Inverse folding.
């Protein structure tokens, strides 16, 4: 019986006091309260189902998560392979989802060892901001640390 199920649901949601109040009401009031509860419950279920359908129909954007890779610093020592370091730093920036040019420059400079960093800042003049792009850093570093 659907009315009995509705009364059980009401008692489960509102507690035994609601059940006692319903039992004390006239038969017409009981029918009215149970009908109002049924209407409320159907509306709530429809609302929740509508929200679920709306959420399911919206395509979810997959947000890639950055991966942090450690790159050994480029020191500028004899025998050090600059082209390998450039490949490693490029892969690390791509994995870290670093695409803004100024951030790529900062990451490259921060992965210079002391000798290479000193060289980069002194060769850029008195203003380190003169290093404007990643490709500029690669060109200048390649020229500055080219094997003899």
């Amino acid at each position: 019986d659907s009315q009995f199920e509705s009364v059980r649901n009401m008692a489960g949601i509102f507690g035994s006091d609601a059940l006692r109040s319903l039992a004390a009401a006239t038969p017409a009031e009981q029918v009215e309260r149970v009908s109002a509860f049924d209407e409320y419950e159907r509306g709530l279920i429809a609302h929740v189902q509508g929200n679920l359908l709306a959420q399911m129909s919206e395509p979810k954007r997959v947000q890639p998560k950055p991966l942090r890779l450690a790159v050994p610093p480029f020191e500028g020592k004899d025998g050090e392979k600059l082209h390998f370091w450039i490949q490693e730093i490029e892969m690390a920036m791509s994995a870290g989802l670093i695409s803004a040019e100024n951030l790529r420059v900062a990451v490259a400079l921060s992965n210079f060892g002391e000798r290479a960093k000193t060289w980069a800042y002194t060769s850029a003049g008195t203003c380190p901001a003169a290093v404007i792009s990643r490709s500029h850093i690669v060109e200048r570093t390649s020229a500055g640390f080219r094997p003899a």
User: Anything to note?
Assistant: The chain has two domains: 2-57, 82-144. The chain has a mean pLDDT of 81. Helices lie at 2-14, 16-24, 27-57, 82-95, 101-110, 114-123, 134-144. The radius of gyration is 35 Å.
